[in-house]
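Now for a concrete sample entry.
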Amino acid sequence: MGKNLVTAQIRGESRALCLGAVMVVCSAITYYILGTTVLPLYQKSVWTKVSNCHLIEIDIREHEKLEGKKVPQYPCLWVNVSAIGKSAILYHTEETKEKNHQCSYIPENLEDYQEARRDVETIRVRFKERQNFPCYSDPDETEKSVLYRRLYTPQMLLKWLFWPTFMLTGGIFIIMMVKLNQSLSMLAAQR
């Protein structure tokens, strides 16, 4: 009976050890992904200063209005604002500028032109209602554009770091408890 109890205990410890190891590996992978994708994007973002933007011009530009340049076949919302004492182009997020620097806002559904047009019109009306709004600018003024919303904020980094840290700590704790239990089991078996 004692041998069966020791065998069952070893199986339980092995399962717990595997669970702890899986948690540690998952958190390490998450940290790697975080470190190679999100952190560089956060560091690359220069729009850190909260400013007050005043709407100067807002226009929905169709592809034919953009001076014959090759542009996507969706309506383009163009927003010109006054921020930090200068005229600047407003972009929805960091990704908007990278996707198409000619558009301040890119609609989500690009397959259906009419739905994209309604989406852009809704955003245009919201901007018309609020002439002044907070935006993010570059404190060094190297960027001539401002952002309506930042994707990569310190709060976002904290959110991304919480669960991997929790899993890493939990996995290490499980492994330590299993090892401690194994040591105590060996001491008890020797007596």
